[in-house]
Write a sequence for this structure.
């Protein structure tokens, strides 16, 4: 793998995996007061559109990273709705 | 602009602009207790790498969206550090 692909891969892993510590924190604290509902609504819709874009253009990295991000971001949206 | 470019553009605008309501909420409430430091640290580093990737590949949409996201996400990282 060349340098540019490696750089893009690391960048994608970081911006995707970043949601994991937030999921763990919110699950443990059962508190989502400071999270913005607007942020997670917009983010989840945006990631769904990225996923559709990836499927239509048959772009495996876009499908894979946005599939993972969708799982984590929609979990946070659910936490925001149930934990308050 | 064809359908696919329009779809990618809307997806990019949503996942970028999503951070704005969180910035406004955290600024108003002066409370960042429920935000994960790990999330924003990883996210900011990942977006910096995306920006470097965009500059090295001369990809204007990647530079533009990640430049904006970096501004918003690093503002939230700063809020997390100062508001507690």
């Amino acid at each position: 793998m060349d340098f540019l692909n490696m750089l893009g891969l690391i960048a994608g892993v970081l911006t995707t995996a970043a949601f994991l510590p937030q999921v763990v924190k919110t699950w443990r604290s059962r508190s989502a007061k400071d999270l913005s509902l607007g942020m997670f609504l917009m983010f989840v819709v945006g990631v769904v559109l990225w996923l559709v874009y990836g499927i239509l253009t048959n772009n495996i990295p876009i499908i894979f990273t946005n599939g993972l991000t969708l799982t984590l971001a929609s979990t946070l949206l659910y936490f925001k709705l149930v934990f308050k």
